[in-house]
Write a structure and sequence with these properties.
Oligomer: single chain
Strand content: 15-25%
Number of domains: 1
Order of helices and strands: EEHEEHEEHEEHHEHEHHHH
Shape: globular
Structural class: alpha/beta
CATH superfamily: 2-enoyl-CoA Hydratase, Chain A, domain 1
Length: about 250
């Protein structure tokens, strides 16, 4: 089970790899392992930089909808409150730089984890799917803060309300990504070099930069998580959620 989330530390870089084929979706055990890995990296004195990526051709499809009973709304809400939202908060509020290498497409909570990182790079073939409303949901894991913060409120509303899916190059142009690479090998090589570059800098200075830039936004991010949890509970309890998810799983 531990192989679902691979964790290693080398050259002061904590490498976290999502490894749950085929779409690297997260059931409760996998989400818990991811949460623990990010926590361990944040608290370790040896770690200066966190590097998040996936295995295979997909970065992360978010919550494994096949692992939950769609009629059990309490469990779905509990998973978001106890695991998925805390993962996003750990990533966003971490004092250490967090680099994400999106080795493939991402959606749902997985996409929000990527956007919560400080530097988010993707391979050209990846797709960013903001398909929350198609599943009868609102953006979770801080998405209602992250998306407007990256692209502005007007554009964020269009992205979410129209359930848009972006090619990596288009997502870069919109400001959703830091950079795009042609191949997975190039992505892995170049982004890990970036992580090594950051790990070679003063940890104190990097931490102070993040603290200065996030001094106001961390509190706002946390407030949005609480609001999302309240509103998502309403959305999950509605028939549109089960209808949307069932259509999605039949694709």
């Amino acid at each position: 089970m531990a192989d679902m989330i691979q964790y290693s530390v080398d050259e002061h870089i904590a490498k976290i790899v999502l490894n749950r084929p085929a779409a690297n979706t997260l059931d409760e055990p996998a989400a818990r392992l991811l949460y623990e890995a990010v926590q361990d990296a944040r608290m370790s004195d040896e770690v200066r930089v966190i590097y998040l990526t996936g295995s295979g051709g997909v970065f992360c499809g978010g919550l494994d909808l096949k692992s939950v009973d769609l009629s059990d709304t309490d469990t779905i809400v509990r998973l978001h409150r106890s695991l998925f939202d805390p993962i996003a908060k750990e990533i966003y509020s971490c004092a250490k730089p967090v680099v994400c290498a999106m080795n493939g497409s991402a959606s749902g909570a997985g996409l929000m984890f990527a956007l919560a990182c400080d530097l988010t790079y993707a391979v050209e073939q990846s797709r960013l799917a903001f398909t929350f409303v198609e599943r009868g949901l609102i953006p979770a894991c801080g998405g209602t803060y992250l998306i407007p913060a990256l692209v502005g409120e007007k554009k964020a509303l269009e992205i979410v309300l129209r359930a848009k899916t972006y090619k990596a190059s288009d997502a870069l142009a919109e400001g959703l990504l830091t950079g795009v690479y042609a191949t997975v090998d190039e992505l892995a090589r170049e982004t890990y070099q970036i992580a090594q570059e950051l790990a070679g800098r003063s940890p104190l200075v990097l931490n102070l930069v993040k603290k200065a830039m996030r001094s106001r936004t961390i509190e706002r991010f946390d407030e949005q998580l609480r609001l999302e949890e309240e509103l998502q509970a309403v959305a999950v309890a509605a028939p549109s959620f089960r209808e949307g998810v069932e259509k999605f799983l039949k694709r």
